[in-house]
Each structure stands twice: as C-alpha cells, then as structure tokens.
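tool_log.txt
---
The assistant was asked to compare two proteins side by side. It first ran the structure predictor on the initial sequence, then on the second. Raw inputs and outputs are pasted verbatim so the downstream comparison step can read them without reformatting.
(1)
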Amino acid sequence: MREEQLEALRKVSKETGISQSPLIGTALDDLLKDKERHKKKLFSHKGK
C-alpha cells in the first residue's frame, strides 16, 4: 500500500473509532478484487 493510502486509513480510523486492522483488510480485499478484474479484462481482449 502506498503511504498516502495508509495515511487515509489512519484518518478514517481516528474519525470512526474503528481499528486500522479491519480497515486495512477491507482495503486490501478491494485492491485484490480490482486486480483480478483488470487481469480478466486484459486476457479477454488478447483472445480476440
């Protein structure tokens, strides 16, 4: 994760009172899902 992303998570954690760990886990899950979507798009276009 980039430093600015971590800083944003720290800010959200302070504002909401939610621990950083679940927020980081959620953010990583979202990033992995985005990566998989992009990979599928890339490979689906190569076959055409």
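(2)
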Amino acid sequence: MERWTARGRSYDRQTSYALLASLLRSAFGIRQADEEAVARAGIETRVRELGLNIDVATVRLVLDVLGYASADFDPQAGRRVLVEVVRNVIRRQAALGPLLIVAEDLHWMDSSSQAALQDLVPELVSLPCLFVATGRSEWEPPWPSQRVELTTLEETESRQMIGLSLGGDVEPSLLETMLLKSGGNAFFIEQLAHSLRETGAIGQEGGVWVGRRSLALVVPDSVHEVLGARIDSLGAGPGRVLRAAAVVGRTFWERVLERIVPSPTLK
C-alpha cells in the first residue's frame, strides 16, 4: 500500500498551501532540504511513472508551492491548476493500488490548503483511498467524515499497556503508582516505562518489574518531566544537539544544525 503523509505546523498557518506542499513532497518523494533541481527531477520522474502529462508551467507552479522560484500564476487560476494536479496524481496512484493519506495536526492547517482539500477529499470515496486526518478536539473537518474521538485509556487498558511497555508482570505498588501518575495518557505510559528502565529506577526480580528506589521520588509528575529527564541522561553532546534541533522544529537537517552546533558535537 502506498502511504503519503502531511502535517500542519503552527508557524505555517499563514503560509499558503503549506500543508498541501507537505503532502506533495511526500507524494513526489521530495525532501524539504532538496535543491530546486532535485525537486524538479522528483516531480518529473513521478508524473512519468504515473503516466501523466504536466507542462513546464505547471511544474513551475508545483515548485512555487514547494517554496522554490515563483511561478507568477494568477492566484485563482493557480489554485484550479494545483487542485487538478493533486486530483490527477491521487487518481493515478489509486489506480495502481490502495492509497493511504495521513494528514496530521490539521487544527494548524492554512486556509489555502483547507480550501483545496474541501474540493479533493469528498471525491476520495469513489477511490481505493483512505484519508486519515488528526486534529485537536475543537477542530471540525469541513468535509463529510467519520469522527473517532481519542480519549484517555480506561484503567484496564492502562494496566495492559504498562505491562506491554515494560514487557512482563509488574509489582502491584509500582503498577498503581504508574497508573496514578499517567492518568490514562498512553504516551505518558510509554515514556514513563522507558524512563524508569533507563534510569535503573526499576528492575526485574523473578520476572516481575519492581521499584528499586522510592517511587514517590523517581516517578515524574508529567510527561514533560519524563522527556526532560530522558534528554538530560543523554550526556552533554547529544543533549545539546537535541535541544538545538527542537528549536529548529520537528523536522530538521544536519546542515542546519551545523550552523548552530559545532560539528564535533554532531559527530
């Protein structure tokens, strides 16, 4: 199954077609760090593979959306052409086999991408294509959809996940402490299990996970504390790189980090 991804970002909400550009990069196999010539080659190769004919002006429009040279298209005409390009690429790909499109954090989607998706998503019901979108609870998709609310885990589910995350039976007092601290947050449970193992705060005795230190002192109160402790345990070099990368964003490249972190640290 072919899988394409896209993600909304808080700092891109005012950037036209930012989310759609993310989807196009995934569809064409283009990295954000790629030079224009590499991106152009990726577009042209992919459209040939799909049996599409796209003229030079349209390729330039796609490059414009991806953040390269301006295509000087009329905004309305450009939108129509862009939507048609995405529509045709999706249709041709779906004709080759099932297609999964995963678009995350759409509560940060820019208005231009939203308008384009309003035209495109309703058409997907006739194709072997599944469009999965995630967003905060206050976000409402502007197209027909089946909504799945992700709530906190029930106590039984939390107990099961703790056992799976640690990989074995868990001492009752340790289990209850982890249940209380995590509050049914699946991500918190996962990170807490990693942190307790890495720090040696827990260990296995007779195949059962037990606390080796006072649980009140070693179990963090929030997921931020858990992640902070894990970062601190990395050591000065890796920790510095990770903090610098966090400033750059969720997606980053070595050449960007090299400008703000000395190369020996990166190695």
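---
observation on (2): The first helix runs from residue 18 to 28. Strands lie at 2-7, 99-104, 129-133, 169-170, 202-205, 208-211.
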